[in-house]
């Protein structure tokens, strides 16, 4: 028996909670923007003056313009992935545990939560973009609607990946392992800091199976008009990864138990 | 009418039997308590009843529905307060109640009324629009009880409802639970490791140890099983050698059964008649020039029942690491 109204309410309520939390916790907002800002300022400006390397120049881009789409996506990625993983605590010791005994579909509840986390991650991405625009006013802003879509799909993909992984982990050590073994490689292999085309062949293969590569490439295409893949391909891959990970996260959460 | 029916329920985690072939029934409108030390299997059992954990074998029916076959039906009929605080501390009391109510399918106009009603019931009207992180532990507990009641459940499950609360607040929380039953006829199932909570709050108690029910009944019936009185004598003496000799002498004077040294240098005696035993105890102790600091005697409590049945005191179970983390979080 599927009741559409109840389903919508479940999704909406969980979305509402995540967004409300974000609005409340201003310190979290500042923290999440400070990190990408430091990357742009210290790493970006430092690197672009130390070596404006061949690839960046052949693109006709300064390193800053090359880097900024990557940093925006990095911010979205970290926020959403961490939010997804934090479901562990929420489920074992927090609010979500109480939701497990509600007479509502768990898949829909977790989907609502993922949507909420993605909204928050996307918002943070936008704030980073605004800051970045002051540093590099040459960014192209006419593709903002598609950029929004890209950011949102990226956020949803990695929130759901985080949720799926989190349900297999029960300790703080596991949490750190996930950050080290999933988050760091995903970021470095995404082309956020250096182009995919100059990577060694074996590394390229890893980059190609990494959804974040397509997010970064799409963002770069939209904001600087330079990219490795075509924009439709990027969006297709992201849509696919979003569907797959959302489905997996919902499926795993549906049969979750508390121990 | 029985609203909870458990038959041969067993839960195994690997080699560990957390719940071992447990059977019991709870009547409508009863306050039923599961009393046992930490790690006795109370929370595991509660998790099975509230459908977040699957049993290894056996059946459990809650509000007339099998927990394995109809978990959603069961969830509609029950309210749960878990051991850990499961409120969103960033949100206000009202927002917490609102989200819960919506997830449970309570419509907006009814929900608004219900929140007002319940915040009055738990005496938190003035705090209801304040962020939960500014609440005290007792206030959080009360809010959780209110939340569990929003959708008018038939049965309320409480896992260690007063863990980590100060004595005054605990009595306060008990009052709410009693009023719930009195005014709304709600059945309450709770777990506790506080014997006073079981004694003062529950109509019936099941004493559980190592996953097994070792005794069950009304608190007064359970304590009546021990047809004795308890004498506590706190002394100054801590010298092990002297204590041993003292024990020997006490034994020779007929205090063979059930006396032991508790923490804080208190001797505990199980006696037939306290008024006759106390002078005798004094006599023996004086022979050892032991200074007596304090004497009291009481009717047996559930603590004594537990001691009698298991040979251990409820307090002797060390709180594990997780409990310490829990208490720490609660006290913040």
Structure description:
The complex is a heterodimer of chains A (259) and B (332). Chain A has twelve helices and no strands. Chain A has helices spanning 4-24, 26-50, 54-58, 63-85, 87-93, 95-99, 106-135, 144-166, 172-188, 201-208, 211-224, 231-254. Chain B is an alpha/beta fold. Chain B has a six-stranded mixed beta sheet, with helices on both faces. In chain B, strands 2-1-4-5 form a four-stranded antiparallel beta sheet, covered by helices on one side. The longest helix of chain B is centred in the middle third of the chain and has 18 residues, at 167-184. Mean pLDDT of chain B is 85; it is low at 318-322. The A-B interface holds A 6, 9-10, 12-14, 16-17, 20-21, 24-25, 93-104, 109, 257-259 and B 13, 47, 50-54, 72-73, 75-76, 78, 80, 82, 84, 86-88, 90-91, 95, 99-100, 102-105, 131, 147, 329.
Topology:
The complex is a heterodimer of chains A (259) and B (332).
Chain A lengths: L3 H21 L1 H25 L3 H5 L4 H23 L1 H7 L1 H5 L6 H30 L8 H23 L5 H17 L12 H8 L2 H14 L6 H24 L5
Helix pairs in contact in A: 1-7, 2-4, 2-7, 4-7, 4-8, 4-9, 4-11, 7-8, 7-12, 8-11, 8-12, 11-12
Chain B lengths: L1 E12 L2 E12 L3 E5 L6 H8 L7 E6 L2 E2 L4 H7 E4 L11 H11 L4 H14 L15 H13 L5 E5 L7 H18 L2 E6 L2 H7 L2 E6 L2 E6 L1 H6 L4 E7 L4 H13 L7 E3 L3 E6 L2 H14 L4 E7 L3 H9 L10 H11 L1
Parallel strand pairs in B: 3-8, 3-9, 6-7, 7-8
Antiparallel strand pairs in B: 1-2, 1-4, 4-5, 9-10, 11-13, 11-14, 12-13
Helix pairs in contact in B: 3-4, 3-5, 4-5
């Amino acid at each position: 028996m599927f009741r559409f109204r109840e389903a919508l309410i479940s999704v909406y309520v969980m979305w509402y909670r995540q967004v409300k939390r974000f609005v409340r916790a201003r310190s979290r907002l500042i923290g999440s923007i400070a990190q990408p800002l430091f990357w742009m300022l210290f790493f970006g400006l430092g690197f672009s003056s130390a070596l404006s390397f061949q690839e960046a120049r052949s693109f006709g881009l300064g390193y800053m313009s090359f880097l900024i789409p990557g940093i925006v996506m990095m911010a979205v990625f970290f926020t959403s992935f961490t939010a997804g993983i934090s479901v562990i605590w929420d489920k074992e010791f927090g609010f979500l545990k109480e939701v497990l005994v509600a007479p509502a579909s768990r898949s829909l509840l977790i989907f609502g939560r993922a949507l909420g986390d993605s909204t928050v991650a996307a918002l943070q991405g936008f704030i980073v973009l605004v800051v970045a625009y002051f540093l590099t006013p040459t960014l192209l802003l006419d593709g903002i609607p598609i950029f929004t879509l890209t950011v949102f799909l990226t956020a949803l993909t990695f929130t759901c990946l985080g949720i799926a992984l989190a349900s297999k982990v029960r300790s703080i050590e596991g949490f750190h392992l996930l950050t080290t073994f999933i988050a760091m490689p995903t970021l470095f292999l995404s082309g956020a800091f250096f182009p995919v085309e100059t990577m060694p062949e074996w590394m390229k293969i890893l980059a190609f199976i990494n959804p974040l590569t397509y997010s970064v490439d799409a963002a770069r295409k939209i904001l600087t008009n330079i990219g490795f893949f075509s924009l439709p391909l990027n969006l297709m891959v992201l849509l696919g990864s979003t569907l797959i990970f959302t489905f997996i996260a919902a499926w795993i959460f549906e049969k979750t138990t508390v121990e | 009418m029985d609203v909870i029916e458990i038959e041969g329920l067993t839960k195994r985690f690997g080699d560990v039997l957390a719940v071992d072939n447990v059977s019991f029934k709870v009547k409508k409108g009863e306050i039923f308590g599961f009393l046992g030390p930490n790690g006795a299997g109370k929370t595991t059992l509660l998790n099975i009843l509230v459908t977040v954990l699957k049993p290894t074998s056996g059946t459990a029916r809650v509000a007339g529905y099998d927990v394995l076959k109809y978990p959603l039906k069961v969830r509609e009929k029950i309210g749960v307060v878990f051991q850990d605080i499961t409120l969103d501390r960033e949100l206000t009391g009202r927002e917490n109640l609102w989200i819960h109510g919506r997830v449970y399918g309570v419509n907006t106009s009814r929900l608004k009324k219900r929140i007002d009603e319940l915040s009055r019931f738990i005496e938190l009207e003035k705090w209801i629009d304040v962020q939960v992180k500014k609440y005290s532990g007792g206030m959080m507990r009360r809010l959780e009880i209110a939340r569990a009641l929003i959708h008018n459940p038939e049965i309320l499950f409480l896992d260690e409802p007063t863990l980590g609360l100060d004595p005054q607040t605990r009595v306060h929380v008990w009052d709410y639970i009693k009023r719930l039953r009195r005014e709304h006829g709600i059945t309450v199932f709770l777990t506790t490791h506080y014997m006073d909570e079981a004694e003062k709050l529950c109509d019936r108690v099941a004493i559980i140890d190592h996953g097994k029910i070792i005794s069950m009944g009304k608190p007064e019936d359970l304590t009546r099983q021990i047809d004795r009185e308890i004498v506590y004598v706190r002394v100054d003496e801590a010298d092990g050698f002297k204590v041993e000799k003292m024990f020997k002498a006490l034994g020779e004077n007929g205090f063979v059964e059930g006396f032991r040294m508790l923490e804080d240098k208190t001797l505990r005696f199980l006696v037939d008649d306290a008024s006759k035993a106390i002078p005798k105890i004094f006599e023996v102790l004086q022979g050892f020039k032991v200074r007596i600091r304090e004497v009291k005697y009481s009717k047996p409590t559930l603590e004594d029942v537990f001691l009698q049945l298991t040979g251990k005191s409820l307090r002797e179970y060390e709180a594990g690491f997780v409990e310490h983390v829990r208490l720490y979080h609660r006290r913040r």
